[in-house]
Design goal:
- The structure holds two protein chains of two kinds.
- Chain A is α+β, with helices and mostly antiparallel strands.
- Chain A has helices spanning 9-22, 33-36, 66-76, 78-82, 95-103; strands spanning 26-31, 51-57, 87-93.
- By secondary structure, chain B is of the alpha+beta class.
- In chain B, strands 5-4-6-7 form a four-stranded mixed β-sheet. In chain B, strands 1-2-3 form a three-stranded antiparallel β-sheet, with no helix packed on it.
- In chain B, helix 3 (96-107) runs parallel beside helix 5 (153-162).
- Classes of the chains: A alpha+beta, B alpha+beta.
- Chain A: InterPro entries: BolA (IPR002634), BolA-like_sf (IPR036065).
- Chain A: This is Bola-like protein.
- Chain A: It comes from Mortierella alpina (Oleaginous fungus).
């Protein structure tokens, strides 16, 4: 267990899990932790990987509500949440939905 | 031994410990999908579903939700049309996501003083872990409308943008319909 987290083990873990789970067309993981480091909930937390934004495009979301998409991801990342992951801001789209937005 | 049916279709079957049997987690790898159908055969057969199994599923924290916390949550969400479990208070949110949810509700015209029941989970550690388990949702804030879990900040925001949230709030009498600027025939 490295005490330095500069290589982003949580990011790597999220990427691996979501890549396997969703076979995404695109997957963007943005670490927002520094913006939330001052929160009372983050007092005493030294991890630099607590808050992320995730933009993911995958066919795996087809036919699923936003709630179901988020639950799918939260369920898969439960170990990361137990290990200190604190917040995910999720943007979950299917390739068809992305194409629709691009057209509009 | 208790089967949580909700976990079966996640590919993860959680067997809760009882005095006679320790907890077991069975993870089904994707290449063993046949096991999933085998376990799903177990699903809603009522004879194995005890009262505990009827709790919402959780992959996050299976041990925290006490009966008293569960009752607090259930009373709150059944007795109030709109409940938000948040960090801080509507006047002084302690987290950007909780603040965003308050701003969305405010923008929808919800009376935050009178129509909203909020819980500051920072002030109640048991509620904080309990609500995550109750909703099977690992993050705060959490919004309940008419006893149903609606979502967290992202879902509230996307429902706000799509117009779904207004529909829901109007239906529940929590906000008034905005007159449409460009009424459609």
């Amino acid at each position: 267990m490295a005490s330095q987290q500069e290589d982003g083990p949580v990011t790597a873990s999220i990427r691996t899990t979501l890549t396997e789970l969703l076979k995404p067309e695109s997957l963007e993981i943005i670490n927002d932790s520094s913006k939330h480091a001052h929160h009372s909930a983050m007092r005493g937390v030294s991890s630099k990987e607590t808050h992320f934004r995730v933009n993911v495009v995958s066919d795996a979301f087809a036919g699923k509500s936003t709630m179901q998409r988020h639950r799918l991801i939260y369920g898969a990342l439960s170990k990361d949440f137990e290990a200190g992951l604190h917040a995910l801001s999720l943007n979950t789209k299917t390739p068809a939905e992305v194409a629709k937005v691009a057209e509009a | 031994m208790t089967v949580r049916p909700e976990n079966l279709h996640r590919g993860s079957l959680r067997l809760i410990s009882t005095p006679s049997a320790p907890a077991l987690d069975i993870h089904i790898p994707p290449n063993m999908n046949f096991l999933r159908s085998a376990t799903s055969a177990l699903r809603p057969s009522s004879h194995i579903l005890t009262r505990r199994a009827a709790l919402p599923a959780t992959a996050f924290a299976v041990r925290h939700l006490s009966d008293s916390t569960k009752k607090t949550i259930e009373d709150a969400i059944t007795q109030n049309k709109l409940v938000v479990f948040m960090k801080g208070t509507p006047d002084a949110p302690m987290c950007g996501f909780s603040r965003a949810v308050m701003q969305i509700l405010d923008a929808q015209g919800v009376d935050l003083q009178n129509s909203l029941k909020s819980f500051n989970i920072l002030a109640d550690e048991e509620l904080r872990s309990g609500i995550k388990e109750y909703s099977s949702w690992p993050t705060i804030p959490q919004v309940y409308v008419n006893g149903e879990f609606v979502g967290g900040c992202d879902i509230m925001l996307s429902m706000h943008q799509s117009g779904e949230l207004e529909k829901l709030l109007v239906k529940e009498g929590l906000a008034e319909a905005e007159p449409e600027e460009n009424p459609r025939a």
